[in-house]
Amino acid sequence: MMKLLKIELKKINVKSQIISLIVMNIIVLLLSVFTATLLAGPASEINPIGNEVQLTTSELALLITRAILIVWQAILIVQIIIEEYKSKTITVLFTYPFSKKQLILAKFLLVFLLTVAFALFSTLFQEVSTYLLSQRLSFVTFASENLGSLLIVLISNCCLGFLPLFIGMKNVSVIATIVSSLVIVVIGSNSQASPTGLLGIPIISLFLGAVSVGLVIVTYRSMLVKEM
Q1: At 97, is the secondary structure helix, strand, or coil?
Q2: What residues contact 217, with CB distance under 8 A and at least 6 apart?
Q3: Local confidence pLDDT in tens for the 228 residues of the chain
Q4: Which of 10, 22, 152, 161 is most exposed, with the fewest beta carbons within 10 Å of its own?
Q5: Taking the CB of residue 13, how many other CB atoms lie within 10 A of it?
Q6: 192 by DSSP, 3-state: which?
């Protein structure tokens, strides 16, 4: 499996991905801080029952980060899986001395590991950065998060990020994969139930992640029998 992961990893410009990740996190941080300066305090929203809910700078940063990572994962899925099926270059891999199951699982695992690594880095970056800034800038607000809840949400969102694969593989469509990730972002970022969005609620995030895992299993089985 390690050999397969190395083969798949060579197809990705890792250096470019890392640079883009760092730039993305800096932009998200600046956007969150800029929003805080405009509001001169925690961002306020009204929930369905008319009560005001507070959105701190750190919560806003995590909300935006989670949304971007969903789309980012969809792009990885397109690069590593969808495009190879669309162009039929996947058939070249099937000539390698590995089983079809191993080849497909290696692709799934690579997408998951990269997304988890990106999500861990981004969460740590946003949390540490907003905390340090909140110590020096009065308009930057920080809300400490429960570590267990953060990890549950992080892993669940990485699982949910595979939902575009299920949709994209239906017709081997790049557009369907990307658009479905945007739909997930729009729905998941809804802050009426929570200031951090639906994807920021551990129980909801866990449920959606579990559903996505089930659909990934269905997709995996269909890929095993799919004719090129």
Answers
A1: coil
A2: none
A3: 777 788 777 778 888 889 999 999 999 999 988 887 776 544 444 444 444 446 788 888 988 999 999 999 999 999 888 988 888 777 776 676 778 888 888 899 999 999 999 999 999 999 999 999 989 888 888 888 788 888 998 999 999 999 999 998 888 889 999 999 999 988 887 755 566 677 788 888 899 899 999 999 998 888 877 655
A4: 10
A5: 11
A6: coil
pTM above 0.85, yes or no: no
- Coil, helix or strand at residue 45: strand
Residues in Cβ contact with 122 at an 8 Å cutoff, skipping those fewer than 6 apart: 21, 24, 25, 28, 65, 69
Cα Rg of the chain, angstroms: 19
Q: Bridge partners of 44?
A: 54
Using DSSP, state whether 44 is helix, strand or coil.
Answer: strand
How far is residue 140's CA from residue 35's CA, in Å, rounded to a whole number?
Answer: 9
**Residue 54, beta-bridge partner list:** 44
Q: Which residue, chain included where needed, has tokens 């990890």?
A: 151
Which segments of the chain does DSSP mark as H helices, in order?
2-9, 14-39, 57-77, 83-87, 90-93, 100-136, 147-160, 163-168, 174-188, 202-225
What whole-number distance in Å separates Cα of residue 159 and Cα of residue 204?
13
φ, ψ (nearest 5 deg) of residue 196:
-95, 5
